[in-house]
């Protein structure tokens, strides 16, 4: 998040002592309180199959209901990360999402994992524990990580293997914005690439940015095909974008055009039970 938000995380801290400034101390206290008092909620956004728009899974996205005001994760995840609070928070998120699947309220769910969680010693054991506690089928769970979780490629690969052995899927979120080497990617036990919203949003624009986005998506799709990976385009807001992305060969689509993140409805169809990703390795 720090890299993505161009130093936003650092702005929270006193430049010299790396201490939270008073306003952030207050937010941190409020975050602790929120975790204890269950002020967090997961919303779920559909992920559809590109060729027929069948809902195949949902992505869980956290919100903080702070005294009637809904706070975006972009406004508290960075502080949760720098303070370490992301660790208990992340466990809550995973347990909540796995429980929804175990109860049959969703067939498949994608859960975001922050780099601090992923690189924490014992992360895969934590995941294993939650899978066991909730009794969920691990094949129905996808963990979304970002390239910044893989800065230490040796350790990253080790954790990815442990997760694969547990049976959960792993996807690379915001793909295309970082600088993973393609040869490194080909060796990772990762099966899903989520193409960053930035490219989706430019895909139908005339001019250089549009052209660049189209060619980049084309390249990602070819790469994915060559290594047996599946692609999801994020941030699809128009029918035209959906059409273009499908024509470019993206396997799945996600975005406001198909549905906004929403609370689980009592009668909500739990997404198709068709096999979504066929994991070979
Ligand atoms: P992300 O994982 O890349 O999630 C996609 C974000 O794009 C979500 O923002 C989603 O609401 C938004 N989005 C989806 N479709 C569209 C669209 O068509 N147009 C536009 N403009 N936006 C769209 P959200 O929910 O605010 O989450 C922001 C980020 O916060 C996420 O990005 C993820 O990195 C992080 N996050 C969210 N929930 C969690 C969580 O439970 N744990 C962790 N560690 N991070 C989370
Ligand atoms: Mg995500
Ligand atoms: Mg994303
Ligand atoms: Mg994103």
TrEMBL record:
It comes from the Bacteria. Residues 24-275 form the EAL domain. This is EAL domain-containing protein. It comes from Deinococcus oregonensis.
